[in-house]
Description:
This protein is an all-alpha fold. It has one domain (10-91). It is built from 4 helices and no strands. The chain is globular and about 40 Å long.
Amino acid sequence: xxxxxxxxxxxxxxxxxxxxxxxxxxxxxxxxxxxxxxxxxxxxxxxxxxxxxxxxxxxxxxxxxxxxxxxxxxxxxxxxxxxxxxxxxxxxxxxxxxxx
Length: 100
């Protein structure tokens, strides 16, 4: 059973942040591409950057434990994409048969 990160291991936290930096490079490209098509998607890249910067500054809550965390912003982007594409959450597992 997975356990929550209590942040007692700075090496583990550093690995998580290093991985998040690599993920963010791809996320920023995605957000930029989306924003070029629909302006409202432009806020997500900015919000992800702010969360990552706060996490790198030592506020680990901005990885996944705050309302403005990287995880929360990414989840909001995901939800926005589903709504934009007209995909119901229960359909996102590959059962989508509508037109987008």
